[in-house]
Amino acid sequence: MGRAPCCDKANVKKGPWSPEEDAKLKAYIEQHGTGGNWIALPQKIGLKRCGKSCRLRWLNYLRPNIKHGGFSEEEDNIICSLYISIGSRWSIIAAQLPGRTDNDIKNYWNTRLKKKLLGKQRKEHQARKANSLKQEMKKCIANSSNLMLTGNTTQNPNYFTHDHETPLPTMPCIYTINQDLALNDQSSIRKLLMKLGGRFSSNDHHHHQQQQQSHGLDHNSSYNNLHHQNPLDNFPSSTTSTAANTQQFYDNNNSFSQFLMNTTDQYNLEMAAASVQMSLQGINSNFQMGYDMNPVPEGSCLEGLEGSSYNCSTSGPISAESTSWDGMGPLAYTQTVSELDRCAQPDHMLQADYAFEELHSRYIGLH
DNA sequence: AACGCATCCAACCGCATCTTG
DNA sequence: GCAAGATGCGGTTGGATGCGT
């Protein structure tokens, strides 16, 4: 049985609001408030509109101090970095931008910002490609002349050094999906859950599955299990996540770190790129990179970061020999939490939850 | 001027969550 | 504890507008 409609669809006006309707709604709410009941409101003031429609009209256009259009560069940066951190949680993003509505931000992102970023990304990718090609050619020339002069065969042009002075890549990388990690069925979700520090026994899983079935939940609801077992429950409770307490956290609590190492190489790569993006925008500098905690699993495939300073100076599969990512997975995650701190969310654990939820939902979404 | 296509954005819809009785 | 209703949210739609030919 479906839900009962919130209003009588046949007798409700749809489409653009007239100035008269706006005036009626505005005058009433300014004088009486919403009365805590949007559904009853249109009848009270004689509007042939659905209560939901009234609410939307008020929140997005009629309430005081609403700004429309004219997004500043700073607002662009905030939207981009929050989108990278928490995804399409427009209401949370809107809460950081006074006078902006979630609908406005969503539209702005979908119609302009996304394209703006993609255009930028393409340009920069091409520039990097051209640049790395040049450098590669130089190396080849230098190498071949060196070989000719000294007969030295140990030099390897594909050996990557830790050069943190080199400019960072500016846009998120594009990575390929490791098929082994596909989460498109119950059994692979089970695998993921089992990897969470081994805290999901077969019986636990069976129990959860039964619960899910009895509640009519689909496979995405495994997210809820994951959520309740959030390894970040023991995350340091300070209001800012520093490199020191992050390190301490991962020393004390390996499960999340293990989880990332074992199961979310894609996520690591994505978040690493996101963290680079954020640091470029000067949004967060609460931690230092450089822990050797989370090597990219052998065989991970990375594209689009040619010439970057984080050892991924080429496209294609990464071998254990050629590169590691200096713990960027957990650190990038930490930075996500930290970024939410910066946004003055009231509760630190809530922020960790947000980031963790996002981690998992994105991970699910990748498959 | 007329047409077609692209873009923008207000509004709708369905679903999830919260609240209330 | 449960069901029904209310609210909030994010994805999507479709009409208005702009622009190029």
From TrEMBL:
Which positions, given as ranges, span the membrane?
none
Q: Which PROSITE patterns does the entry mention?
A: HTH_MYB, MYB_LIKE
The protein's superkingdom reads Eukaryota
GO MF entry, a single one? DNA binding
Which keywords has UniProt assigned to this entry?
Answer: DNA-binding, Nucleus, Repeat, Transcription, Transcription regulation
Q: Which CDD domains match?
A: SANT
The identity of this protein, by name, is Uncharacterized protein
Q: Which residues belong to any copy of the Myb-like domain? A: 9-62, 63-113
Q: Where is the HTH myb-type domain?
A: 9-62, 63-117
Q: Which Pfam families match?
A: Myb_DNA-binding (PF00249)
Q: Where in the cell is it found?
A: Nucleus
Sequence segments annotated as region (Disordered): 200-241
- Mind naming one GO cellular-component term on file for this protein? nucleus
Q: Where is the composition biased (Polar residues)?
A: 219-236
